[in-house]
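DATA SHEET
Item: assembly model
Revision: 1
Owner: S.N.
Input lines:
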Amino acid sequence: MILEDFHQDIDSTPFQEVEWRGKRVMLATSQAQLANDMMRFLGAEGLVIQHITSAEQGMEVFHPENFELLIIDVDLNGDGLMMGHRLKFKMKEHFVPLLFITSHSDEISLASCFEAGGDDLVTIPYSDTMLFSRINSLLKMGGSYHQQYRERKELAYYHNVMQSEQKLAKSIFNSIVHQDYLDRENIRYTLSPMSIFNGDMLLSAMTPNGHEYILLGDFTGHGLTASIGTLPVSEIFYSMTAKGFTLTSIISEINRRLKKLLPLEMFMATYAIDVNRYDKVISVWGGGIPDLLLKRFRDNQMESISAKNLPLGIIDSQDLELTMQVIPVDEGDRFYIYTDGVVETENHDGKLFGTQALRDVISSAGRDDNIYQAIMDNLEQFRDGYEQSDDITLLEYAFVSTDLQNYFDNDKTLPVRSLKKMDPSLRKQNNGILKYNQIKKDRLEALGEGFIHIEMGNQISSETSGKLFIVIEDSGKGFDYNKLKDDIFADKHRGLGLVNQFADKVQFEAPGNKVRIECYWTQ
Amino acid sequence: MSVSSEFSETENALKIKIDGRFGYELHQDFTSCYKHLPQAAAKKLIIDLSRASYIDSAALGMLLVLRERVGGDRSDITLTGANREIEKVLDITNFEKLFKVK
């Protein structure tokens, strides 16, 4: 740096005035004359001075929060250096500048002042100007340290607050966007967010008529912003599935809500799957997400089914193409859906894992191989400890046609319950579902005979009006319908509440094993 | 990594050229390319991706915002010169339903 620049630099940084007034100084010296001179000079500048005359006294009086500056005479009882050293030790994470005063001027003596923890020194005889500027610089140093210390503490405080807030928010997310129905023998999955919050979601739920719906979603970006959208999607998915809506209407509703809620540039890549174990088909709908890969059990071949639509949240629901692709499946067929975080997994060289690598693992695997584990191992090996750069989600689903009822609660029909003489309140208890299902299974096995009689008709009363009726009767003992509580009608989406909402008349007949429902119509 | 734009008289279109990684880092540069355009002047757009190496979902989002700005369904935006990787992304996301891909 040439001198001119240096001066310019000086000029451009305004000299920072240090406030002396009120700053507390510990002055440690047993020399009366020195003490008097200094106290007069420093006192005139507004410093508050505490004069001590022994190391013991100094150790007793000193606390890092009580002083802004220490001035220690090296000759204090012959061990000023030791005292300085011990006080510095006592400061721990605090910093109080230490100025030594010494009458020795040989190099070794001066160096030992700094070794003992001194920040600067003044040799006797000293000049007032020199003393002034040294103290000024030390006070400045201490002041900036204190500011940093305060800021650091504040930062640590906010960091703690943020962490506990995130923990709380995370637990709320977890209870809404839960994976409760995914922990089953025929499913393996991984959901690996790159930060606390996940922009990927994987949901599963059973419909009232025994279909299973699966939804994989990947929001633009990652972290909290990306994961906010998972809340409404999860709510819509679980509630509409439970009410028996078709998967296409659920997709349409999710799209409508996301289009309304999310900013223009955010969307959700989606795979939605309807697993129908009765007819042995899966119906799939994909929007802007990598191919579904299907590994057949019979011939060990792999098929891929690409997503034909835009991600959700971009266009209006009325413009969405809502045709499902229907794919016949058989016992032991396995399908894989995943977010692009899997194939865009990066390694140290900046290379991506790639779609081909994933397809190779699946297509080359044998019929009895644990493909899921093979994929995870390959990914791990490829990444080799390199940091994750996106949320990663992968699902393996092995098709089984057997009853999954134990995992779900969907049997809500009145006659069947009556037929089996079940106590419906059982289902509201802890573990009630499991108990209920067990009893149901036992009784169904033990059941010798029984009937459900359904009668339907349309009575035309004029050319433009009439009534539809449905009468259902079973061979059960019936129940006391006069004791039905109002709250059973409160849920208008299922059971009696639903029936009561669309029917004009609901009439039970004694002994409670027969119900007549009427709906009036006019043209 | 950069964005440049020019108005092509012959094609009567605004050409925006992406160089390098097309991601969130280019958000500001990309937006400022068309921000000051009078709505009427920017009917037709060509996004030149021949020098773009990669596209992420943030960039796809930026394209959606641009599309809305120049008329939504009535917009005329062409994406040209995409390399194989970018083509794959456009294919997976089915963005050819919203943009002309050449």
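QC remark: The first strand of chain A starts at residue 24 and ends at 28.
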